[in-house]
Automatic annotation (TrEMBL), chain A:
Keyword vocabulary terms for this entry: Endonuclease, Hydrolase, Nuclease, tRNA processing
A Gene Ontology biological process term: tRNA-type intron splice site recognition and cleavage
Protein name: tRNA-splicing endonuclease subunit Sen54
Provenance organism: Chanos chanos
GO cellular component: tRNA-intron endonuclease complex
Gene label: tsen54
From TrEMBL, chain B:
UniProt-recorded name of the protein: Polyribonucleotide 5'-hydroxyl-kinase Clp1
EC number: 2.7.1.78
Region (Disordered): 1-22
Domain Clp1 C-terminal: 324-441
Function noted in UniProt: Polynucleotide kinase that can phosphorylate the 5'-hydroxyl groups of double-stranded RNA (dsRNA), single-stranded RNA (ssRNA), double stranded DNA (dsDNA) and double-stranded DNA:RNA hybrids. dsRNA is phosphorylated more efficiently than dsDNA, and the RNA component of a DNA:RNA hybrid is phosphorylated more efficiently than the DNA component. Appears to have roles in both tRNA splicing and mRNA 3'-end formation. Component of the tRNA splicing endonuclease complex.
GO cellular component, one term: tRNA-intron endonuclease complex
UniProt gene name: clp1
GO terms under biological process: brain development; mRNA 3'-end processing; RISC complex assembly; tRNA splicing, via endonucleolytic cleavage and ligation
Clp1 P-loop domain boundaries: 131-317
EC class name: transferase
Keywords: ATP-binding, Kinase, mRNA processing, Nucleotide-binding, Nucleus, Transferase, tRNA processing
Pfam family, one: CLP1_P
Length: 401, 443
């Protein structure tokens, strides 16, 4: 505990307060012994150590752990680790530490500042960024604003062009008369004899009495199995004449009819319940879009998997979260040397249950700072301290697509 | 009237006919003589005076026409005629009750449409003939085609009846460009038909393939119409199969839209008429026509026999006298045999999210074995490329057939099979498609 500065033995505020609480140290302030209450008031300030940090410190200290203040510069970078520069770095760090200890308070510039809560929750961000979602939004905005659809409707419903266009099909079946027994059910008439030039060998035939044939039509009931009868009943009930549809009536040939059907098919694809698709929050997928379970699961997994060290180096560092202490285990106390502390057991980041949960961004950044040493979050709740840590793990995937 | 024309009489051909004094029939105008030939017999028909026609093909005066056993013939006269029948007939009677006048009026309407098409430089009428089995669909087709071609039109017969094809062997779907009236005995001369392999005698075995091939035929026909003005004006007459319920009905609707038909002739079924009127857009004229009283119901055996006859005719020619097929060995390694459509698997056995739609159009390689014996194989026109590439399966499905062979024997030891082929070796192509249809060469 403590450090030496220009030949003087110094203590950090939390160390001093801890020793005071243990009854091992008496601090004289203005020639008067400091009470513990005064110690709390004097030592725990915004500039030095927060109450929460001290609570964690003293809690672990009492349990026998060794805690030292964390200095980011003492952590070797990955590159340094790779080059095995740790040793030389340690020496430098020791040197640095001594130097920096001149102003111990300066190293805790914002340790007591509660992180502000104005940031957008990080977990929601990947959701809006996924391309599938973006597409869905785009298409839903199509259906919501109905620019694409109304264009078709306008074209179809506009009476202007259909009024000017000739809606007649190519063949005029009023003049080209077929001997259709079906449509003449009600009125019997005889067909005029066809023009001889239309007939092979310039035949001349008389008129044809269609009425006589009506009676000869096959009136025998068609034999249908039970299933076929059911199917037919279903058809009769639910299937309507395609020609009742005015849009179909407006088609003049197969090409137009096929175009209409195709248009309807694509429209049906675009038509979705408004309550689901017109708001700002839309379904992630729709029926028929995903072909396999794997694809569907991928589509609805809004929280993207992320590893602690993924892309952490590229993240902008924020000051809301910082590591406070290095922790060494009690069983190493005997060999512990301040000059060569070695690799800590863990590093502590202190926060409160009142404050926000650390974002993925912060967690990533802290783990990057800490390097190969895990970061533990000590969460203080009115003197009770709980410890949490985040570990990389793989979510089980049900379907491999 | 039957759908299929005269049958072959046997290996003797037209040579020896017991000449007995024929029965004379005098027909009034617009009547027809119907007769059926007894099994094992043949009947000679001669036009003594007047004019007469058989399914739209005119008879020559004083020429003897021979009809083989099982033939069901109707000789119609518009003006009145005298006929002589020689030989044993099962029945022979004169009927005044024929819907020929209705059919003729139908033809007149179609001809009007062709005229309009010629005038407007447009395409001619596309007609689909539908109806249940045994109502005379093929006969009506033949009639309308004959009338059209006698007026100098060049209509196309599209044969979608895979069970009783009048163009090629059963199990195929084909199109035939008609340039002259059907022969009274033989039917339409089959010069260069476009034939697609279907592989079975009922569309129900693979309705997906059936619809796909229908679309293929429609596409090819449209292409033809673009380059051939006469074919375009002539239009087409589509003969369909007698399956008019469920998927069969859906196939009819699909066919109508694939070919963009203008007229649908429904023979003798009001339900079908009403349903088609409901399901087809208004610019398609759906017409209900009666069937002829002369149509005879054919039994299953009769149908099977006609099918066999048709295959025999392919190899041996009409009446088995005109062609001489070749028999030779084909090494297994020289050919690739496929079957269209993988066996269906219950959905529960499929991987999650897999649907079975595509299995029906899949090409499944068949390893030659003893069970191949007597099967009819189509020789696909698909180019023989090296080994199967990615897009090749589709090509085989959609490419027409250039001929048929029948496997007569399989030698698994020597890895060869003996085939009956219309032409000497070698096979023009090496991609073979297997049919469900078997043919045993007995005669």
């Amino acid at each position: 505990m403590g450090f030496s500065d220009r030949g003087k033995q110094c203590l950090l505020p939390e160390e001093a307060l801890y020793l005071m609480e243990c009854g091992n140290l008496q601090v004289l302030y203005r020639d008067l012994p400091l009470s513990i209450q005064e110690g709390y008031e004097l030592f725990l300030t915004l500039e030095t150590v927060s109450l929460q940090q001290y609570q964690v410190f003293s809690h672990l200290k009492r349990l026998g752990y060794v805690l030292t203040r964390f200095d980011r510069s003492t952590v070797p970078t990955q590159y340094e680790r790779q080059l095995n520069l740790t040793h030389c770095r340690d020496k430098q760090g020791k040197h640095l530490k001594r130097k920096r200890s001149q102003s111990p308070t300066a190293r805790y510039p914002n340790s007591a500042i509660t992180p502000s809560t104005h940031t957008t929750p990080h977990f929601h961000r990947p959701r809006t960024e996924t391309p599938s979602q973006g597409e869905a939004m785009e298409s839903s905005s199509n259906s919501g604003g109905t620019p694409g659809r109304s264009w078709w409707i306008r074209e179809g419903d506009d009476p202007q062009p259909t009024g000017t266009q000739n809606p007649d099909p190519r063949w005029d079946f009023m003049t080209i008369s077929f001997p259709d027994l079906g449509s003449r059910r009600t009125r019997c008439e005889s067909l005029a004899s066809p023009e001889p030039s239309l007939l092979p060998g310039a035949l001349r035939v008389g008129s044809c009495d269609v009425g006589a044939w009506l009676g000869k039509l096959n009136l025998k009931q068609e034999r249908l199995s039970r299933r076929e009868r059911e199917r037919q009943r279903y058809r009769d009930r639910y299937k309507r004449d395609v020609n009742n549809d005015p849009e179909v009536r407006r088609c003049r040939n197969w090409a137009e009819y096929a175009e209409l059907l195709e248009r309807r098919r694509s429209q049906r694809r675009r038509e979705r319940p408004a309550n689901l698709w017109e708001g700002s929050v839309t379904p992630l997928t729709q029926p028929g879009e995903c072909l396999s379970h794997g694809e569907l699961l991928e589509r609805i997994s809004v929280v993207e998997p992320s590893h602690l060290f993924d892309a952490a180096s590229r993240l902008a560092s924020s000051d809301e979260w910082s590591i406070c202490f290095n922790v060494y285990q009690p069983d190493t106390v005997a060999e512990f040397k301040k000059s060569d502390p070695g690799r800590p057991y863990t590093r502590l980041c202190i926060c409160s249950f009142d404050g926000p949960v650390p974002e993925l961004h912060a967690i990533k950044q802290l783990s990057l700072q800490s390097g190969d040493v895990p970061v533990t979050f000590a969460v203080v709740d009115h003197g009770d301290v709980s410890f949490y840590c985040f570990k990389d793990f793989q979510l089980p995937v049900d379907v491999v697509s | 009237m039957t759908t299929e024309g005269p049958e072959k009489s046997g290996e003797e051909g037209t040579g020896s006919v017991a000449v007995t004094s024929g029965t004379r029939f005098d027909l009034d105008k617009e009547t027809e003589l119907r007769f059926e030939v007894e099994a094992g017999e043949k009947v000679q028909l001669e036009l003594l005076s007047g004019l007469a026609e058989v399914f739209g093909s005119e008879l020559n005066r004083n020429k003897k026409y021979t009809f083989g056993p099982g033939s069901k013939i109707a000789v119609f006269t518009w003006q009145g005629c005298s006929l002589s029948l020689t030989g044993k007939t099962e029945v022979a009677y004169i009927s005044k009750d024929t819907p020929m006048l209705l059919y003729l009026n139908t033809h007149a309407a179609l001809e009007q449409m062709r005229r309009q098409a010629e005038r407007d430089n447009d395409r001619g009428p596309r007609v689909m003939v539908v109806g249940p089995t045994d109502v005379g669909k093929s006969t009506v087709c033949r009639l309308l085609l004959n009338y059209a071609v006698r007026l100098g039109r060049r209509p196309t017969l599209v044969e979608l009846d895979v069970g009783q094809s009048s163009v090629s062997v059963p199990g195929t779907m084909s199109a035939l460009y008609i340039e002259r009236p059907a022969d009274v005995e033989e039917g339409f001369s089959v010069q260069a038909p476009l034939v697609f392999h279907f592989g079975s005698t009922t569309p129900g075995t693979n309705i997906k393939l059936y619809n796909k091939l229908t679309s293929c035929l429609a596409e090819v026909f449209s292409q033809r119409c673009e380059v051939n003005r006469r074919a375009s004006v002539g239009g087409c007459i589509i003969n369909t199969c007698g399956w008019v319920k469920g998927s069969g009905y859906q196939a009819l609707v699909h066919c109508a839209s694939a070919f963009q038909v203008d007229v649908v002739l429904v023979l003798d079924q009001e339900r079908l008429y009403n349903e088609l009127k409901r399901d087809l857009p208004h610019f398609v004229r759906v017409v209900l026509l009666p069937k002829s009283g002369g149509v005879v119901e054919r039994s299953k055996d009769c149908r099977r026999e006609t099918r066999d006859e048709k295959i025999r005719e392919y190899f041996y020619g009409f009446r088995g006298v005109s062609f001489y097929p070749h028999a030779f060995d084909v090494r297994f390694s020289d050919v690739r045999i496929y079957k269209i459509g993988a066996p269906s698997i219950p959905d529960s056995c499929l991987p999650l999210g897999m649907s079975q739609d595509d299995t029906q159009l899949k090409l499944v390689p068949v390893s030659p074995g003893r069970d191949l014996t007597h099967h009819v194989l189509s020789v696909s026109c698909a180019e023989d490329e090296g080994e199967s590439g990615a897009g090749r399966g589709r090509g085989i499905l959609e490419s027409p057939v250039c001929g048929f062979i029948v496997v007569t024997a399989v030698d698994t030891q020597a890895q060869v099979m003996t085939v009956l082929s219309p032409a000497p070796r070698p096979l023009p192509r090496h991609t073979l498609l297997i049919m469900d249809i078997r043919f045993i060469d007995l005669k």
